[in-house]
Design a protein that fits this description.
Structural class: alpha+beta
CATH topology: Fumarylacetoacetate hydrolase, domain 2
Mean pLDDT: 89
Distance between the termini: 54 Å
Strand content: 25-35%
Shape: globular
Number of helices: 4
Helix content: 10-25%
Low-confidence stretches: 11-22
Order of helices and strands: HEHEEEEEEHEEEEHEEEE
CATH superfamily: Fumarylacetoacetase-like, C-terminal domain
Number of domains: 1
Radius of gyration: 19 Å
CATH architecture: Alpha-Beta Complex
Number of strands: 15
């Protein structure tokens, strides 16, 4: 290899390493984690021994109050309101008793779901991840400190208002798998890194969004999420 060729190869490898570092964020989602939601979706209410996990890519992230544009592949776009936990340190195979050391901030998030596409895929016995992992499907609000706000991760009341009317509300006390259990389970399979997000599940009350809706998410009376549907 010539000197010029070697220099070009080194530049390409360096660029690849930079790209790898910048695209390492994960969005981990927990399905069927509230009995009330399982009932409204007509799912079996059998007690599960392990959490149901699916993932979204970093392209799914929508933040800073930016609007959500309903994509053309769905005519039944639905909201699922959740508490979102941000991972604050690197961890693998984390014991439940130490899990609280790996997060310190939460927010309200929306797991946008193309329900018609999900239904079609399920009926065909196919994976339905694409109905939840498309661009901008993971909407998050402002993150706040659990300690500064005096919040107990296992007793956080939250709600979603659409156009000023409360449409969904829940409390993390009702989660089937608590946050520390989720972290213990997930970290058996994948390394958790700073900035990773965990959507902890949605309670009953999911529903369809329409163009021009204004969605606002609250913890207690603290508004953390505010965006519009376009």
């Amino acid at each position: 290899m010539t000197r010029l060729g070697l220099e070009r190869t080194q530049k390409i490898l360096t660029f690849a390493r930079i790209i790898k570092v910048k695209t390492g964020m994960k969005i981990i989602c927990i399905g069927m984690n509230y009995a009330s939601h399982n009932k409204e979706m007509q799912r079996a209410l059998l007690l599960k021994s392990e959490p149901v996990i699916f993932m979204k890519s970093d392209a799914s992230l929508l933040k800073d109050g930016k609007p959500f544009f309903i994509p053309d592949f769905s005519s039944d776009m639905q909201y699922e309101t959740e508490i979102v936990v941000k991972i604050s340190r690197l961890g693998k195979s984390i014991s439940r008793k130490f899990a609280s050391r790996y997060y310190d901030e939460i927010t309200v998030g929306i797991d946008m779901t193309a329900r018609d596409l999900q239904r079609k895929l399920k009926e065909g016995g196919l994976p339905w991840e694409i109905s939840k992992s498309f661009d901008n499907s993971a909407v998050v609000g402002k993150f706040v400190s659990l300690e500064k706000e005096g919040l107990d991760i296992n007793a956080i009341p939250f709600r979603l208002d659409i156009d000023g009317k409360t449409v969904q509300q829940g409390n993390t006390a009702d989660m089937i798998f608590k946050t520390d259990e989720i972290i213990e389970y997930v970290s058996r399979f994948v390394t958790l890194k700073m900035g990773d997000l965990i959507f902890t599940g949605t309670p009953a009350g999911v529903g369809q969004v329409e163009i021009n809706n204004c969605l606002q998410g609250y913890v207690n009376d603290m508004k953390l999420l505010d965006f519009q549907i376009k």
